[in-house]
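Reopening this ticket.

The earlier resolution said the output was attached, but the attachment link was broken on my side. Pasting everything inline this time so it's all in one place.
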Amino acid sequence: MSTVPVRYRFELPDGQSHLFALELDKDTAALSPPAMANPPDWTRLGFNQCRGCPLQAATDAHCPAALQLAEVIDRFANLVSYDQLRVVVETEERAVSANLSAQQGLASLIGLIMASSGCPRTAVFRPMARFHLPFSSETETAYRVAAMYLMARHFAAEEGAQPEPGLGGLARVYEGLHQVNKGMAQRLRAASRQDAIVNAIVLLDVLVTLVPIAIDELLGEIKPAFAALLRETSI
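Inline output:
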């Protein structure tokens, strides 16, 4: 199996360093199931299961996203949201580093893990995981989400579907993600002794709430850059 490596290194205020070396399947952007002999109780599927989750405890004993996040929770259970960290993210193409709060750094890692975890509700974001861009701004996120969604419509049309025009369907996609974030926040409150992990999920959910509402405005800010391309495509 060909994989895409993504390495997150967190440099903590006390001098400790934590490395998370992720391997995403190059075709599907999925993470391999973690090897864990005794998963913690909070990873059980029925423990604060997300509303609308299609999984059943009879066939899936544990929440796939929770299982993938268990190592992160274990290492950062005592971290406070506003502790300042240095985070370095390395892929095959580039290295990106930033000095930011614990909740911001964790939000980037958790968002990537959840998209690739095997959760059926977050899997729609695997194209963004496959081309991961850490610490992106609201405008960058809006651009990437719109591009992902419109490319999916293009592939659907190639297969004979007649997808609805525009970006209206994004609201449904983000509502599903909002329910996952709510359920995961409830799980993590039981797993973490401090607030950095839970607040990382809250930060992700703020963006989830913002993007469908503000996407037209955010994309409008970059429309002037499309002037030449618009002229070409209107011919």
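Reporter confirms the inline version is readable. The longest strand covers residues 3-11. The mean pLDDT is 90.
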